[in-house]
Design brief:
The complex is a heterodimer of chains A (about 160) and B (about 190). Chain A is mainly α. Chain A is built from six helices and no strands. Chain A has a domain at about 105-155. Chain A has helices at about 1-25, 35-45, 65-75, 80-95, 110-130, 140-155. Chain B has a five-stranded mixed β-sheet with strand order 3-2-1-4-5. Classes of the chains: A mainly alpha (about 160), B alpha/beta (about 190).
């Protein structure tokens, strides 16, 4: 009976405090300086949440993402550049934490494929367009047959 | 006669493309199946990285906590294990840690956990850790590049990180990957 009451109370308190805790989660973490906060948000959008991996840390509600948001803000407030912060993260979590991978030997094909596809497409289209209207030369046998037919017509006339 | 051949040639391009894509998908799925490829794995370069600066309190009743300096000064390689009492894989990892502990100094860092819960968790069946430190806000773990518990690091004397694993340890993994690195250093 006592235990049931305790449990009930626990659930009641949990139900009340949870939304408050989640609501506090964001605004209290925001940097007072608007420009810095904006920078932190942009940086966060470029960092992968390592728990829900296709979300950025700015979008994810995982606790690791919340901690990483906090770390980003600490670094921004300390006056570090975007590059320094991204490098700090990459040193600890590898290239994978960047939602947009940097151009390197390993990512060369990834970055150049659109350009390669465009160039190949233009080249092929150009070749095909130039071909239209151009007659295919007759083979020797065909020329003979043509001469024969023309010869026959001339004779008949 | 030339037109059909060229048409056929043009047809082979998309067919070959689709075939290649199919082969790629099959290759990816089969290596995901046998565990040689994990798209969620965080590939992190650890060569040359050193233990970051930190200092963490210990747990009452256990030994003191430790800091980067203590790790650097250790004469033997140390296996540092991040764990939490609320993490299920950590519970299953405990048994393996107990069999690993006699073979290498094993130091634990409790990640985002309450001191009482940690004490209960590690003393329930005998603690495998030579030392335990508390990282209650999880900031030290982030500085180490921990993305979740359990994770383990092999620290060589001088503070160099020689190995980093982001999954639960077991005896086989320990013997295959960690022990050779730990014994290779004098």
């Amino acid at each position: 009976m006592n235990r049931a009451l305790q449990l009930g109370l626990a659930f009641f308190c949990f139900g009340i405090t949870t939304p408050v805790a989640l609501a506090l989660d964001d605004p209290s973490e925001m940097l007072p300086n608007q420009a810095q906060e904006k920078r932190a948000e942009l940086l966060g959008a470029r960092l992968r949440c390592l728990v829900c991996q296709n979300e950025s840390i700015e979008d994810s509600s995982a606790s690791l993402a919340r901690d990483l948001r906090h770390v980003v803000r600490q670094h921004v407030a300390a006056g570090e550049s975007d590059r320094q912060i991204m490098d700090w993260m990459t040193q600890r979590y590898g290239e994978f934490i960047r939602l947009q991978p940097r151009f390197s030997f390993a990512t060369m094909i990834l970055w150049t494929t659109p350009l390669l596809a465009l160039v190949t497409g233009i080249f092929l289209a150009g070749r095909m367009l130039r071909r239209t209207g151009e007659a295919i030369p007759l083979s020797e046998a065909e020329q003979r047959r043509l001469a024969e037919l023309l010869g026959n017509r001339e004779k008949r006339e | 006669m030339t037109i059909p051949t060229r048409r056929r040639l043009l047809m082979t391009l998309p067919v070959a493309g689709a075939g290649l894509a199919g082969f790629g998908c099959w290759k990816m799925l089969s290596s995901m199946q046998d565990g040689s490829f994990d798209p969620r794995a965080i590939h992190r370069e650890i060569t040359g990285t050193k233990v970051p600066k930190f200092s963490l309190p210990g747990l009452d009743g256990q030994k003191d906590g430790f800091d980067a300096e203590t790790l650097r000064k250790s004469a033997k390689p140390v296996l540092v294990n991040f764990f939490a009492s609320w993490c299920i894989p950590c519970v299953t990892e405990m048994a393996a840690l107990r069999s690993i502990a006699p073979q290498i100094p094993l130091w634990g860092i409790a990640y985002k956990d309450k001191p009482d819960d940690v004490r209960h968790f590690i003393t329930r069946d005998g603690s495998p850790y030579a030392r335990v430190a508390l990282d209650e806000d999880g900031m030290t773990a982030i500085n180490w590049g921990v993305s979740g518990v359990p994770e383990s690091f092999l620290i060589l004397p001088g503070g160099r990180i020689a190995w980093h694993g982001a999954s639960a340890l077991d005896e086989t993994l320990f013997r295959r990957e960690i022990l050779p690195l730990a014994t290779a250093t004098p």
